[in-house]
Task: structure prediction
Amino acid sequence: MTLIMQMVLLFKPHETDFAQEALSTIFSILPRIAAGSLAAYLVSQLTDVYIFTYLKKKFPKENQFWIRNNDSTMISQLLDTLIFTSIAFLGVFPMEDWIQIFFTTYVLKFLIAILDTPFGYMAKRFPVK
Result:
């Protein structure tokens, strides 16, 4: 889709076309968003697995799952947010806007990490086949 939309932007619009400027505004940063998303996902997932595995050795008990889950997720999501927002938006928007995007995105991910822990404990109780 990213490639297709970049090709669409290359077409010369009709002189009565009123949407070209809006399309250019929206889709001109699409490659940055796609690249940022892929890079952030790769780094954050590998980091999350590595940290969770490390913490499982330090905190092996079942009742310590919340430590492993929250710490690994919060650290990896911090990296995810930093990488994504930097690649996608740094230099596109003013620094004040970038900081606001970064912090609001991370705060939401942080809260979700806390709220998903009880569901992790419930999932661990499912029978293994």
